[in-house]
Design brief:
By secondary structure, the protein is α/β, with parallel strands linked by helices. The chain is built from ten helices and ten strands.
C-alpha cells in the first residue's frame, strides 16, 4: 500500500531523515519505534504532505505522492493524527468531527460514520456540544482519532496516541486502534510506549537518527535482547 524508498528530509540544515526506506502492506499495523528526535514524526509529516523530501520516492497505491499538497493526500485516503492531538479548541466536539469529513460529499455516509464514532467513543457522544478545549487529554485523543476516521482513510497515520494519558486510557486507545484495524483501516503507528505498540502491530521498524536500523515482525522485536534493553525497559 505504501512504499518509501531512500528519502532524505531536511529541517533547514538539519538532515532529519537519511536514506530511509520502509513499506506498509494493506491491512497491517506497522509501528515505528525510536527515541525522541529519531525522525518518526518527521516521517509522518512527510507522508501527509507537510514536508517534502529532498531525495527518494514515496508511492501510495502505486502512485507517487511526493510534492502533492496535504489536502490531495487526504482525499487519496491518508489521514494523519498529529502528536499533541491538535483539536480545534474553540469548536465543539461535533464540529471537529464534521470537519474531518470536509473532503466528502456523501451526507448519508457522513451521518452513518458520525454515529459509528459515537458508538466507538461513547464519551464523545456525551460531550458532543462541549468545546473541545475543555476536554481531558484522553478525550481529546479520542476526538483527534475520530476526526481522522471521518475522512474515511485507507491508511491512518497515528503520532504518539498514548502520550500524556493515564494507563487506563492508554488501554482504551490501543483497543480502539486494534478495532479500527480489524474494520479494514491500515495503520502506521508512531509510539513511545514500545510494549503497547508491539502488542498490536504486525511489523515494526526501529529508527535511530533518521535511519532504519532494524526491522522485523513485532514478535521478533519483542524477543530481541537489544530492543528489550533499549526500548522495553529491559523486559517485556
Amino acid at each position: 500500500m505504501l512504499s518509501v524508498k531512500d528519502i532524505d528530509v531536511y529541517y533547514g540544515n538539519i538532515h532529519a531523515l537519511k536514506g530511509l526506506s520502509l513499506e506498509v502492506n494493506e491491512g497491517e499495523i506497522v509501528t515505528l519505534i525510536g527515541a525522541n528526535g529519531a525522525g518518526k514524526s518527521t516521517l509522518l509529516k512527510t507522508l501527509s504532505g507537510l514536508l517534502k523530501p529532498k531525495a527518494g520516492t514515496i508511492h501510495y497505491l502505486n502512485s507517487s505522492i511526493v510534492g502533492k499538497p496535504a489536502q490531495t493526500i487526504v482525499k487519496a485516503g491518508i489521514s494523519h493524527v498529529p502528536e499533541g492531538r491538535r483539536v480545534f479548541a474553540n469548536m465543539t466536539v461535533e464540529e471537529n468531527l464534521e470537519l474531518g469529513a470536509y473532503t466528502r460529499k456523501d451526507k448519508k455516509g457522513i451521518a452513518e460514520d458520525l454515529a459509528k464514532i459515537y458508538e466507538t467513543f461513547p464519551r464523545l457522544l456525551e460531550r458532543k456540544k462541549q468545546l473541545s478545549g475543555t476536554l481531558s487529554g484522553g478525550e481529546q485523543q479520542m476526538l483527534a482519532m475520530g476526526r481522522a476516521i471521518m475522512s474515511k482513510p485507507k491508511l491512518l497515520l497515528l503520532d504518539e496516541p498514548s502520550m500524556g494519558l493515564a494507563p487506563l486510557m492508554v488501554q482504551t486507545i490501543f483497543q480502539v486502534i486494534d478495532d479500527i484495524n480489524k474494520q479494514g483501516t491500515t495503520i502506521l503507528l508512531v509510539e513511545q510506549n514500545a510494549n503497547m505498540a508491539l502488542s498490536v502491530a504486525s511489523r515494526a521498524y526501529v529508527i535511530e537518527t533518521g535511519r532504519v536500523i532494524l526491522s522485523g515482525t513485532a514478535k521478533e522485536l519483542q524477543a530481541s535482547e537489544e530492543i528489550k534493553m533499549a526500548y522495553l525497559g529491559g523486559h517485556v
